[in-house]
Amino acid sequence: MGEALKYLRLFNGYKSAQLAEELGLSQSYISELENGKKQPSIEVLDRYAKLFNMKKSTLMLFAESLEAGVASMKQKQRVAYIGMKLLQIMEKVGELEIE
Q: Which of 8, 38, 81, 98 has the fewest CB atoms lying closer than 10 Å?
């Protein structure tokens, strides 16, 4: 989950200090999450999902896809970027179908 949270932050152009302020968390806690030293609670995942205008399930799916075994860091970054774009498109399409 930590990698997904880090890529989500980077994808959206946040520095860790900015993200910490937006989420009402400490910068050190953000770092511990991103480095896999701590696991986020459901409440923290809710905060991320709301800030980045996405569903928690989408965030979890993204995290799971990163853990699926991509070999190098460069490949992971590419998968993360493409994955986030696809998930955003899928959510937008889903919103359009509901309306």
A: 98
pTM of the model: 0.69
8 Å CB contact between 59 and 49:
yes
The answer to whether residues 39 and 3 touch, using CB atoms and an 8 Å cutoff, is no
The pLDDT tens digits of the residues spanning 31-70 come to 999 999 999 999 999 999 999 888 888 888 888 877 776 5
- CA dist 8 and 70 (Å) reads 17
Q: Residue 53 CB: number of other CB atoms within 10 A? A: 9
Domain borders along the chain are 2-98
What is the CATH number that goes with domain 2-98?
1.10.260.40
Cβ 66 vs Cβ 79: under 8 Å:
yes
